[in-house]
Design a protein that fits this description.
Largest sheet: 3 strands, antiparallel
Structural class: mainly alpha
Number of helices: 21
Strand content: 5-15%
Distance between the termini: 63 Å
Strand order of the largest sheet: 3-4-5
CATH superfamily of the largest domain: Ras guanine-nucleotide exchange factors catalytic domain
Radius of gyration: 28 Å
Order of helices and strands: EEEEHHHHHHHHHHHHHHHHHEHHHH
Low-confidence stretches: 1-23, 455-482
Helix content: 40-55%
Number of domains: 2
Mean pLDDT: 87
């Protein structure tokens, strides 16, 4: 029932809400309180938030009139880039206890409670539950536990919150966080019966690399690499967290940094293993072996190890072995050229990106691309608009990168680990020397020819640009130190 004492021309009387399903007239008291603090656009018929004040974005997060799941996921994934957990929690609590306008009559108040307050309260509790269950990235320390105890008290002591559906689930999640439980990803389990039988060397005690079947080597390297990738957390990727040093200026200890180190060590191991072969025929055999392993990694969608092997084969001390390379078969060289083309940096790695998008899981993507994209977004796009609003478009682009990274953490490989093989590979990789120390060994194997020039950086150059290709070592170092 409309209030006849309020003229129809009163701008507060109704407002027109536009959505992809059309325009809907709603009473003024059911409109958004901070609607003018958010800038939106319509993309493919969908309303997309471009920027807003913090109050306006929190209102969007808990709207009563519609649910924007994509916005909510982006907000919860990236809010740490523009506010803190404690501020967000207090704003959500304030939003839960929203008060009606004073001038409502009895009928309008009932409509406000039914169509706005109830919906907002349900949204707030669901947002809190979703945040703590799926997007919790706060450090496990006493400050965080104090925050969680405060949140637990607020929920328990509020009859209104306890009366809201899913509040009991929210309390369970808070209790799990207080006990230090980590966010659990829902893994799509692969039946063990579908795992191929491992191909192991006859003598596992005196193993040599060429005794290991290239397919099995690729499988075990893939298991190792996917383990590194699966341990990466959102908190390490936001605000270039992998670059932040500790209080004592120590190197960051994150899963991202561990994977970067593994990538560099793996590339060095490939190069060192080749250079350790004094016999030219054995060097050729090892080169062919690594190309075969890289090709198997491509078949397994393990682009991370693939890139490291290509990088190892492209490191200066190996790349300059012209006579050795001249003895490698055309078929192997053609295969290597295909792999280099796939992982080439041409047009911002367009070939690799297209291949990754069309690859079915399981998959281990090349981390360097994500770190490069995140660094570009963080440094190249302002955090706020010219009007001072939070630039939510930047967060949307960041969330797209993070979502792509995360989606490849949910499906494990159907391979059986072989501990002896993994130990053999890991020990070799970890013991690999620095690439800068390999140059003299390379010169011993093939002395510098007349007219041969050092590549940029001189004898100490640790990598080589092979046409349009960029070494993962280069990318990892560039992203880590930028």
């Amino acid at each position: 029932m409309e209030d006849s004492s309020r003229p129809a021309s009163d701008p507060r009387h109704h407002f027109r809400y536009s959505s992809s399903s059309g325009s809907i007239d709603l009473p003024w008291f059911l409109h958004l309180d901070h609607e003018d603090e958010v800038v939106c656009d319509v993309v493919d018929g969908q309303v997309v938030v471009k920027s807003g004040t913090l109050a306006g974005l929190v209102e969007q997060l808990t709207r009563h009139d519609r649910l924007d799941a994509a916005f909510n996921e982006t907000f919860l994934m990236t809010f740490n880039t523009f506010t803190s957990a404690s501020v967000l929690f207090e704003m959500l609590v304030e939003r839960f206890f929203i008060k009606p306008p004073d001038e409502l009559d009895e009928v309008e108040l009932q409509q406000w409670v039914e169509h706005k307050q109830h919906a907002i309260r349900l949204r707030v509790v669901n947002v809190l539950r979703n945040w703590l269950e799926r997007f919790w990235i706060e450090p496990d320390n006493e400050d965080t536990r104090g925050f969680l105890r405060h949140a637990q008290t607020i929920v328990k002591d509020s009859p209104e919150m306890m009366a809201t559906p899913t509040s009991s689930h929210l309390l369970t999640i808070i209790d799990q966080r207080l006990q230090g439980h980590q966010t659990m990803r829902r893994l799509i389990r692969t039946p063990t019966s579908s795992a191929p039988a491992p191909v192991v060397p006859k003598n596992m005690k005196k193993m040599k690399l060429l005794d290991v079947d290239p397919v099995e080597c690729a499988r075990q390297l893939t298991i190792i690499e996917s383990g590194f990738h699966g341990r990466i957390k959102l908190s390490e990727c936001l605000n270039k967290g992998w670059q932040k040093r500790g209080p004592d200026d120590s190197d960051p200890s994150t899963a991202v940094n561990a994977m970067i180190l593994h990538s560099n060590k793996l590339a060095n191991w490939v190069a060192e293993t080749i250079l350790n072969q004094s016999n030219m025929k054995k060097r050729v055999a090892v080169m062919k072996y690594f190309v075969s392993v890289a090709d198997q990694c491509r078949a397994f969608n393990n682009f991370a190890t693939l890139m490291s092997i290509i990088s190892g084969l492209g490191l200066t001390p190996v790349y300059r072995l012209r006579f050795t390379w001249s003895q490698v078969s055309r078929r192997t060289l053609a295969n290597l050229d295909e792999l280099r083309h796939l992982m080439g940096s041409t047009r911002n790695f367009v070939q690799y990106r297209e291949t990754l998008r069309s690859s079915a899981p399981p998959c281990v993507p090349f981390l360097g691309i994500y770190l490069t994209d995140l660094t570009f977004l963080d440094d190249g796009i302002p955090n706020h608009t010219s009007t001072g609003q939070i630039n939510f478009t930047k967060r949307q682009k960041t969330a797209e990168v993070l979502h792509d990274l995360q989606q490849h953490q949910t499906t494990p490989y159907p391979f059986q680990p072989v501990p002896e093989l993994q130990d053999y590979l890991v020990q070799g990789i970890q013991a690999a020397g620095d690439v800068h120390d390999m140059y003299e060994r390379s010169l011993d194997l093939e002395p510098r020819q007349h007219g041969e020039e050092d590549l940029p950086g001189g004898q100490g150059a640790g990598y080589v640009a092979t046409g349009s290709h960029m070494s993962s070592v280069v990318i990892a170092s560039m992203v880590l130190k930028s």
